[in-house]
């Protein structure tokens, strides 16, 4: 390959795209296409890989989508949501139907609770509805902390860790191999053992 082939590639803008004859290669995805091009055209790409946190896309879900996510993962009663958001049950139904949009402060609370639901889903927590009402934070649950504006992602992570610990204890107990009908009665839903209340 000569200088003409080398010159056919150029870096434009802020070094985000490599354009060739008939092809556009994004520099932030060099691992996908580098082997296809490097054998034909000599070039050096020194790209710092993006971390997952910097590659996150903004959350563009509507309030109705956030509420659907909350209902799907956490499965709270509509009356519990109404109490947590300080509105009537009819308002929750209107938000779910996308008929009305919530006020900005209530939308923020919806987004906070939806992020908790996302964390539970991503962690594979199967008993998210029970954890939602667990009085683990000075005698208060996640739904109790939400109206006070004290709900933090760390609280959700604490409950996720507790759920994983309970599942590990269940697996070690041998109850999963028992022929008796499985129950979740042995799992605490009142408080996290050993935590300060």
From TrEMBL:
Region annotation Disordered: where it falls in the sequence: 176-197
Amino acid composition bias (Polar residues), ranges on this chain: 184-197
Superkingdom field: Bacteria
Name this protein carries in UniProt: XRE family transcriptional regulator
Species in which this protein is naturally found: Candidatus Accumulibacter phosphatis
Lineage: Bacteria, Pseudomonadati, Pseudomonadota, Betaproteobacteria, Candidatus Accumulibacter
């Amino acid at each position: 390959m000569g200088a003409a082939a080398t010159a056919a590639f150029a870096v434009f803008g802020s070094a985000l795209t490599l354009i060739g004859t008939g092809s556009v290669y994004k520099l932030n995805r060099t691992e996908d296409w580098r082997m296809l091009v490097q054998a034909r055209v000599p070039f050096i790409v020194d790209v710092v890989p993006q971390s997952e946190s910097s590659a996150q896309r903004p959350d563009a879900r509507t309030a109705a989508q956030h509420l659907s996510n909350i209902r799907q993962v956490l499965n709270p009663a509509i009356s519990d949501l109404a109490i947590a958001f300080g509105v009537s049950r009819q308002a929750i139904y209107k938000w779910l139907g996308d008929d009305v949009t919530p006020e900005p402060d209530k939308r923020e609370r919806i987004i906070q609770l939806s992020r908790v639901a996302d964390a539970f889903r991503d962690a594979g927590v199967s008993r998210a509805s029970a954890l939602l009402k667990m009085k683990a934070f000075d005698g208060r649950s996640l739904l109790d902390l939400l109206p006070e504006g004290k709900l933090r992602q760390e609280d959700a992570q604490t409950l996720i860790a507790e759920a994983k610990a309970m599942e590990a204890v269940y697996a070690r107990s041998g109850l999963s191999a028992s022929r008796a009908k499985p129950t979740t009665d042995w799992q605490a839903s009142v408080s996290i053992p050993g935590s300060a209340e």
